[in-house]
Structures
1.
Amino acid sequence: MLLAIAVIMTSCYTITFSVGRGARTGQEIRAKNHYLIGGLVPLQVADPAQMAGGAANYDVTITHTFVDGLLAGITGGIYSPTTITVTK
């Protein structure tokens, strides 16, 4: 019963922001951010500026996808990944 409530109460989220004038070419680079304990302890976090490869204008989207939520649910929130997308 508790597992069903935990799955129902979770949701996906998306955070998007632009650097400079935003994306120009539409080229996307994806990576994973890895966290422990519901996102409190970062293990490996991607650097959007490095992913953009020196571009001055790009968009960054950080999302908690269904698969990310599924992994967090299976581990009881101990492991909580997110997906980051940089669009040049």
Note: The first strand starts at residue 14 and ends at 19.
2.
Amino acid sequence: MPFKDPLTHADLRNIRERQPWNADVISLLWEVKRLRSVLLRAYQLSADLKRPAGLTGELYDDFMKGLREEPCVQERDGMATSLMEAPDRLRKGMAPR
């Protein structure tokens, strides 16, 4: 049985806003946040991990592909990219690059 599509940060925020009084929902959302942080740490460490040889190499490739497709990883990369982009207009006193 396949999994449902993963939830984005916006999806999780909408769930919280629909049921802010439900302590069970809040507890589950905190657990989701903790698990998302584990995925982000794994993604940060993935550049330093070496691909193993043999059958486990294919498992490693599948894991890395799945990790890159996680919404929390894509959202983090998108935010980092937007922060690194040059501003649309120059601020007063800034010279063009």
Note: The mean pLDDT is 88.
3.
Amino acid sequence: MRVWTTASVGTLLTAWAAAAHAAQTTDTYTARINIQTTCAITVSDLDFGNVGVISTHTAAATVGINCSLGTAYSLSFSNTLAVTNYTGAMTNGPNSVAYSAALGSAGGIGPGTTSIMGLILPQPTPPTGLYTDNRTVYLNY
């Protein structure tokens, strides 16, 4: 009867592994990513806050533009024209508050940030309540 020692088992396993891997071949591969031009936009609310009597009020909203580095973009309040300012009305039922807004920048090279500046001029104060106007900022790239 043969007695196997740790050394003889190790020698046997080494010989078996060498026989099992007597040949070897290789192949190469490429790791890759294709970055495509894209942009995303985030806009905070243009919030004039709480007021009692309407006098002159200003507000600002932040526009965040997240584009692939170096991507040229333009901003507009219209999907067909380069509209960078407007006069509108925030409404609550039949009542309204007139205001105007303007983009701080009409475009640039992404990524970037700009603002929307809002202005309410003195006017008759309507009844109490929350007055709103929903608008869209268009990002073209």
Note: The first helix runs from residue 6 to 20.
4.
Amino acid sequence: MKKLLSLAMAGMLAFSVAACGSNDTPAANDTNAAPEGTTTEGTDNAADGAVIKVGGIGPTTGDASVYGLAVKNAAELAVEEINAAGGINGVPIEFRFEDDAHDATTSVNAYNTLKDWGMQMLMGTVTSDPCIAVVAKSAEDNMFQLTPSGSAVESIAQPNAFRVCFSDPNQGAASAQYIGENKLAQKVMVIYDSSSSYSQGIYETFAKEASQQGLEVNAEQFNDNKTDFTVQLQKAKEDGADLIFLPIYYTEASIILKQAADMGLETKFFGCDGLDGILAVENFDTSLAEGVMLLTPFAADADDAATKSFVSTYQSKYGDIPNQFAADAYDAMYIIKAAAEKAGITPDMSASDICEAMKTAMTEIQVDGLTGAGITWSADGEPTKAPKAVVISDGAYTAM
């Protein structure tokens, strides 16, 4: 049964992985050559070619590429660190990431490509609809799957699948709680994408919890038309909404903010993790996002040592400030390491045997990560951790 998280604001703790039976092996000097698209550093076992193959899938092209590139970069960074520290029980990770352009069919094709490569575990996919398509295939193969950011309930509807992020129902309910408990608004207009399982799922639980918070909620949907939102915004203006809730992705949100400004509509905006990336939209005037709030478990300006180290290393390596999706992926690779060490995974095991061992281990580990302290998992694949919120201020995400 999926858990409904209660909203709690908690400071980030130093990043570490705490798992019963976890084991660190000193890194060796050998370097195992990796094919294009993979990341592998040397350990004592690299010389004989023994590796644990982990695949990744997400959009590195297209409208959702901000998400996929962040996941790919952060996962590769984590793999480099893990391998330099000895890999998984002395065995290096070989990592390969495939682009799915945020398309379900392309994502399934990417999954098949990784299977042909010899993938033993999957860190993906990044977005919900492709994840739903892929998890049906990975379940048939009994392939362990950990999605960093696939938040739809159906993204982990199979026993082989777990996630790092919050589910859509959790995000919707937690957003309504935050808005109500902090008295951010009384009248709320929701603009959501009825063609997206992500957006629809968040809206449904938001509306239910909002009624418990005494909020007056109206909703306007869109589906095929994702470039003109003047009708929805005019309705919000007529209703006197003092906050617009946007459970949508950043591309559409950037258009909505521009059209709201053009209409002279002054109101608060609040979103979920799908808005993380709006500051990187090409040709978007970031001043339009000033004051926009979003529910997210990661703030790059947090002052704990782990976040500061991650942000500094990521920025130095990739020339960009990491977003929540990067933090989710970074945690995901360390979660895989923790569970694999707890399960005693070895490179000669079949993907199915690895999956069976990982399913048990995931319910027995506890991880302190960038996106939460003391994260645990139930057998249904859901994490338990405390959500946080950030506000966009002076062109940057700032912890609230």
Note: The first helix runs from residue 65 to 84.
